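[worker-b] picked up task from shared queue
[worker-b] task type: protein-ligand structure
[worker-b] ligand name resolved to zinc ion; SMILES cross-checked against name lookup, match
[worker-b] sequence length check passed
[worker-b] input payload:
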Amino acid sequence: MTNKVLILGSGTSTGIPIPGCECQVCQSNNPKNKRLRTSIILKIPTLDNKQELSFLIDTTPDLRQGLLNHKIKKIDACIITHTHADHLHGIDDLRPLCFGPPPKTIPIYTSKKFSEEIENRFPYIFGDQANKPQLGGGIPRLLIKEINFSKKINKTTLHGIAFDFFLLPHGLGETIGFRQGRFAYLIDCHDVPEVVIDHLRSINLELLIIDCVCRAPHRTHLNTDSSFDFIKKINPERAKLIHMGHDLDHLELETEAKKSLGGTVSPAFDNQVLTYRNK
Ligand SMILES: [Zn+2]
Ligand SMILES: [Zn+2]
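[worker-b] inference finished, payload out:
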């Protein structure tokens, strides 16, 4: 079994098409221009190769649709990269995956800062309220577990799988990025620190998925120029662009990336499955 990345969504915070927008990309018939909010699932075989673990990265407002699209019945763990609405507010849609039988609790891995924000934003799931009797509805059974960010690069094992976690600047805040095997995921960031570039270069990445929200410079995200620059610096075998807004037509961006970086770089699209090796 190889490690897989399933693209549940590849779009910016509004999703594409944007309701009410009549631009060329929002009106496009190309299915690759239809983008749910950005989220991926990593499918990683266990060491004995007997099982496949599924790590969901972010719970977007489109989570339910993503789970339906791929008939997903099981998520072993979830990683929340940051607490913006487009990455978190579908968290309640994890509930059906907890039903069982037997009932299941899904661990949510994130930083200490984001744990506190998530707990405050969803008191009915995590606070004292969660322990009170529920009148109908019910709540997802989730357990927040903090990732330690005391270093610049934090080696962490989740369910027997090795990850390196690091923080990326995202406007005034930050986002969690990670490396697993020969794959790295850099989402929602306007810069990539030198220490992260050096670390990822040294890994000899097979696959990089990187933020690329629009053409013009952006205060909280990478744009085409900066994203292409970091791809050159990190130098993976293949790179996919993600979190695209409506000024980026799939075909045009594909052509542009090919021109600047060669055929190994292209935009990701919803429902795409990518593979990478551990070593
Ligand atoms: Zn986002
Ligand atoms: Zn964000």
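[worker-b] attaching auto-annotations
[worker-b] The mean pLDDT is 96.
[worker-b] releasing lock
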